[in-house]
Write a structure and sequence with these properties.
By secondary structure, this protein is α/β, with parallel strands linked by helices. It has 2 domains: 6-57, no CATH class; 63-353, Aldolase class I (TIM Barrel, Alpha-Beta Barrel). The chain is 28% helix and 20% strand. Strand 11, helix 4 (172-183) and strand 12 form a beta-alpha-beta unit. The protein is globular. It starts with 5 loop residues before the first strand and ends in a 47-residue tail after the last strand. 44% of the residues are buried.
């Protein structure tokens, strides 16, 4: 059989079987056998006794490091070229005493958006991840990462949030392909209602993501938007993307976004002392959001390395939340988890690889250049 390997983590079952047929795999393996192998790999983390066939690309990545802070766990997966993904397993405690876990996944290594409050932005963009590399983060969380609280390996993951490294809308083809695998009942089996994609406000990406929601079976996917300011002046100072896509353009895209009945867009607001945390800021952002069905999610700033700002005082956070609610805005405070392990919101990013140069493209085609090293491709 000639041709490239078929990525078992990067395709839905339907896509995997179609690629296997085109590859000529059914001359040695029946389609039913191939489907059983696919399901077992995704559902149980198990390869056949003799290993995966040579025509299958495994897609699993080595766990490079695990960092624990309370019940929050950050892990990294190694990529070729010395790069790595970062993912966070976050416990969510419910009123009935049960605990579910949310997996925060990365869509890129680094980020090109340049948000001043974000650690990942200090890296710049190294490269985008392939669908396989995105799905590999769930596979590792379920089957490869040591679970220090259960004395074994792996976590039961209920929710997926694209809030790790990178801007998902700048790698949207791979993100949407990964979502199809993550939600495939034969693969990740994550219900679409438990998948959220977060963006700094890339309006073309919001529109295209909305097209996915219009497809049968995907209407319950969720959208989160990193707003972080009440007006263009403040937002442009801390988020360079706002200079190209100001708030009015962003709001226009959100007002036309295809939400299901009673669904709300999550508007994320990183509260930074002295920047966007005044009573006037709160009143202005609530007025801005009044036409939009949304939840205002206030996130106390988690200082990045060499941060120009401290974390806000808890009273300041509570005052902002109370005032937003008094303005009639549905509002909640996001709990701070993983800060000491650099696993909290806005803290992901490898300081050691910041010196690399910016690159474009997906994992399969990108070239990484390291200062002092000879030119050459880095496979993904």
């Amino acid at each position: 059989m000639d041709g490239p390997q078929v990525p078992i983590l990067g395709l839905t079952l339907e896509g995997f079987l179609a690629a296997a047929k085109e590859r000529g795999a059914f001359r040695s393996m029946q389609p039913q056998e191939c489907a059983r192998m696919y399901r077992a790999f995704h559902r149980e983390g198990a390869a056949p006794a003799g290993g995966l066939p040579a025509w299958v690309h495994d897609g699993r990545r080595p766990v490079n490091a695990v960092h624990v802070d309370g019940e929050t766990l950050k892990f990294t997966l190694g990529l070729d070229g010395g790069l790595e993904t970062e993912s966070v397993v976050i416990p969510m405690r419910h009123r009935d005493g049960t605990v579910t876990r949310t997996l925060c996944v990365s869509s890129q290594v680094g980020c090109a958006m340049g948000c001043r409050f974000c650690e990942t932005a200090q890296m710049g963009l190294m490269r985008s991840l392939s669908p396989s590399e995105i799905v590999a983060q769930l596979h590792a969380a379920r089957f490869s990462v040591a679970n220090p609280w259960a004395g074994g390996t792996g976590f039961e993951v209920k929710n997926i949030v694209f809030m790790g490294m990178g801007e998902p809308m700048d790698n949207l083809d791979a993100v949407m392909a990964a979502i199809r695998v993550l939600t495939d009942r034969n693969a990740g089996a994550i219900a679409p209602v438990h998948v959220t994609v977060s963006t700094v406000g890339r309006t073309d990406g919001i529109r295209r993501y909305g097209d996915l929601l219009r497809e049968r079976g995907f209407h319950r996917l969720n959208l989160a938007v990193s707003l972080n300011a009440p007006n263009d002046r403040v937002r442009s100072e801390i988020m360079p993307v706002n200079r190209a896509e100001p708030i009015a353009r962003l709001m226009e895209s959100l007002l036309s976004f295809p939400k299901r009945p009673n669904a709300a867009i999550c508007m994320e607001y990183v509260l930074i002392p002295g920047v966007n945390d005044s009573d006037a800021d709160c009143d202005e952002v609530c007025a801005l959001l009044r036409p939009l069905r949304c939840s205002l999610n206030v996130i106390p700033y988690n200082p990045r390395r060499s941060s120009p700002w401290p974390a806000p005082e808890e009273e300041s956070v509570q005052r902002f939340v109370r005032r937003a609610i008094a303005n009639g805005q549905f509002c909640k405070r996001r709990g701070t988890k993983g800060r000491s392990a650099m696993a909290a919101c806005g803290q992901l990013g490898n300081e050691r690889i910041r010196s690399r140069r910016f690159v474009d493209g997906a994992a399969e085609t990108v070239q990484i250049r390291v200062p002092g090293a000879p030119d050459g491709p880095a496979a993904g």
